[in-house]
């Protein structure tokens, strides 16, 4: 267990004990009501105010909770109640979906630009605002499928959601301030606030991969001020990238010539690759260790192509004969998702699903595949492909990597037709 994990494990344990003590006291006060409350883990709404109690808490300190395929299937845009949370470092007092009202909050913008400056949230809110709908996904989502199971939070499929961000494009901000990029600027290096004594969180993303043109300082989500737990009052959103670059509680943003060498950049959040950017994962022996360094691996940059089956749900029974298999597909937004193929016979034959629509290039493509199915047991699979020919492996374990990132294996769902 590395040092950071050990610390957070101890914190989680302390938190659990404090919680048990509290619930035991509360339980005693109401005569326990026969609920055996002292055995229960805190629910998502107890960990973060405003969250749906159906979210699954993976850690209460730092806060890590995942949504479910069932909940994701009920909404076109994931509500703040149903959106997963991934904190590496909690900021005290922000475990709520309410806005984080902090007048005068400052973001420092600097590094390789013609003139560094500071900007307040009030000033940001007076600049032209842009909306973008994008898929937010933890790069560890799907980790529980890897065999052997890598260390880290055992995300199943719920570390993902689709939300609409509103804020000021970085490009718009620099133009408004009449600030020019230095030609040596290659990366954006960001720091989260350390208010309340929080540990630093520093991440870098290459300007080229990040689709600099759509990177924004987000102040809002789904038509409301950005919820505190999701990074309010201001968060960097790089549509098309995995969650890790989307720094919450943004305090500083610098244009730099190279990547941060901090712990969150290396060895964390990386996959083995041959040198190069946005390259495929280098296959490694499942179960083996990898000596992560900046030059033999890459950070979790652009989201790789993926698709999830949202209906029917695993283990469910549906009425035949016409069964609508439904789901979503997405990628990094660099090319459109071209097709989703569905198989109901273990991959022997595939049929193209109907793509019903998508929420812009960074959002989910909703697809449906009507199937005529006689009563019986089925296993349905779905595989997305984009116009660059990028597709999902039938066996996601081919990309097994020590830390279990970027799972995009074809999903298999067993259900019954009655
Ligand atoms: N300041 C800060 N920003 C952060 C993190 C964090 O721990 N601290 N976690 C990152 C990771 S790993 C993910 S997956 C996303 C999760 O975003 P959410 O909690 O809003 O769902 O936030 C990213 N931004
Ligand atoms: Mo993440």
From TrEMBL:
What sequence ranges are listed for the domain Moybdenum cofactor oxidoreductase dimerisation? 301-416
- Extract the GO molecular function terms from the UniProt entry: heme binding; molybdenum ion binding; molybdopterin cofactor binding; sulfite oxidase activity
Question: What organism is listed for this UniProt entry?
Answer: Meiothermus hypogaeus NBRC 106114
Q: Which cofactors, if any, are listed as required?
A: Mo-molybdopterin
Q: What's this protein's name?
A: Sulfite oxidase
Key words, A-Z: Metal-binding, Molybdenum, Oxidoreductase
Q: Does the keyword Manganese apply?
A: no
Domain named Oxidoreductase molybdopterin-binding: which ranges? Answer: 103-262
- Which Gene3D superfamilies does UniProt cross-reference here? 2.60.40.650, Oxidoreductase, molybdopterin-binding domain (3.90.420.10)
Swiss-Prot/TrEMBL GO biological process terms: sulfur compound metabolic process
**PANTHER family per the UniProt record, alphabetical:** SULFITE OXIDASE, MITOCHONDRIAL, SULFITE REDUCTASE
Which PROSITE patterns has this protein been placed in?
TAT (PS51318)
**Superkingdom of this entry's organism?**
Bacteria
**Oxidoreductase keyword on record:** yes
């Amino acid at each position: 267990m590395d040092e950071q994990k050990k610390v957070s494990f101890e914190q989680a344990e302390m938190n659990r004990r404090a919680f048990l003590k509290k619930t035991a006291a509360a339980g005693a006060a109401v005569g326990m009501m026969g609920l055996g409350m002292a055995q229960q883990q805190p629910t998502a709404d107890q960990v973060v105010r405003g969250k749906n109690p159906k979210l699954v808490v993976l850690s209460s300190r730092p806060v890590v909770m995942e949504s479910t395929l069932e909940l994701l299937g009920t909404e076109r845009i994931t509500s703040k109640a149903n959106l997963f949370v991934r904190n590496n470092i909690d900021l005290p007092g922000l475990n709520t979906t309410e806005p984080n009202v902090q007048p005068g909050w400052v973001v420092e913008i600097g590094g390789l630009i013609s003139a560094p400056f500071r900007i307040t949230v009030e000033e940001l809110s007076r600049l032209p605002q842009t909306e973008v709908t994008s898929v937010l996904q933890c790069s560890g989502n799907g980790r529980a499928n890897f065999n052997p199971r890598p260390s880290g939070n055992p995300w199943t499929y719920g570390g993902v959601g689709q939300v609409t961000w509103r804020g000021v494009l970085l490009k718009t901000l620099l133009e408004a301030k009449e600030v020019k990029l230095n030609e040596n600027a290659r990366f954006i290096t960001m720091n989260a606030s350390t208010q309340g004594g929080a540990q630093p969180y520093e991440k870098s993303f290459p300007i080229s991969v990040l689709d600099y043109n759509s990177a924004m300082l987000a102040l809002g989500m789904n038509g409301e001020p950005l919820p505190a737990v999701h990074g309010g009052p201001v968060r960097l959103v790089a549509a098309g990238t995995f969650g890790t670059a989307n720094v919450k509680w943004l305090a500083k943003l610098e244009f730099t010539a190279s990547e941060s060498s901090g712990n969150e950049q290396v060895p964390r959040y990386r996959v083995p690759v041959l040198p190069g950017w946005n390259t495929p994962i280098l296959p490694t022996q499942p179960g083996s260790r990898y000596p992560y360094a900046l030059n033999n691996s890459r950070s979790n940059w652009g989201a790789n192509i993926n698709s999830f089956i949202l209906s029917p749900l695993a283990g469910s029974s549906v009425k035949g004969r016409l069964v609508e298999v439904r789901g979503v597909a997405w990628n990094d937004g660099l090319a459109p998702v071209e097709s989703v193929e569905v198989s109901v016979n273990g991959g022997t034959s595939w049929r193209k699903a109907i793509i019903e629509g998508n929420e812009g290039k960074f959002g989910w493509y909703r697809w449906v595949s009507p199937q005529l199915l006689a009563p019986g047991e089925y296993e349905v699979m779905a595989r997305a492909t984009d116009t660059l020919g990028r597709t999902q492996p039938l066996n996601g374990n081919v990309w097994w990597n020590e830390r279990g990132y970027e799972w995009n294996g074809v999903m298999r769902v067993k259900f019954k037709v009655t």
